[in-house]
TrEMBL record:
The keyword Cell membrane applies. Belongs to the SURF1 family. This is SURF1-like protein. PROSITE patterns: SURF1 (PS50895). One of its GO terms (cellular component) is plasma membrane. Its main location: membrane. It is a multi-pass membrane protein. The chain crosses the membrane at residues 204-224. The keyword Plastid does not apply. InterPro entries: Surf1/Shy1 (IPR002994), Surf1/Surf4 (IPR045214). Keywords: Cell membrane, Membrane, Transmembrane, Transmembrane helix. It is found in: Cell membrane; Membrane.
Amino acid sequence: MTRRGWLLPAAALLGAALTARLGFWQLDRAAQKTALQAAIEAEAGRPALANAELGGEQQLHRRVVLRGRWVAERSIWLDNRAMDGRAGFFVVTPLRLAGRGEAILVQRGWAPRDPLDRQRLPAVATPAGEVEVQGRLAASPSRLLELGEGRPGAIRQNLDAAAFAVESGLALLPLTVVQAGPAGADDGLLRHWPAPDLGLQKHYGYAFQWFALCALIVGLYVWFQLLRPRLRKP
């Protein structure tokens, strides 16, 4: 067989091997995410942490029952957040922890936006005394695409916890709390938080696409190089 004759089989073999490898890589990523999901569920099933037990990022996803006082004047309203198909704000307020010098950001819930006045903040009840907050530990609030630098003020697109700690002068712990509890029980906020999405279906979808492309390469080679020439013979 000539060098040119080897070129097409080699290209087909390389393409099939590469696409199959990418498909298995996506399945491996899905397996990693499945293990992570199991770890998250295991952490959520452990006893809730109290003020004195709060530490660092190794406690991510643990349940908490905290006591402290809201730093209401430092509340941040994260814009363009949706819940139950409606546009509005995520309300984030620091909680100064009782018996400690630190505070922690609490993602308290969702409030609707005034469609006629985007700068008008909805009324949210924030008790002045010591409160108990139940929830789970999470990383910083989810980020949305933002062009340019974020503007300071109560209404923001995103919130950088480290920069906000410097801005507010608060000693913030490196995690946030996603508050749980009945929606609108005492503050008018909704808390229909979606389950953490690790993107499992995305990896399975990509794996299917790569395997389908692999099958297509093999199928085309077999048809045009092996079957079709034989069918043309008299």
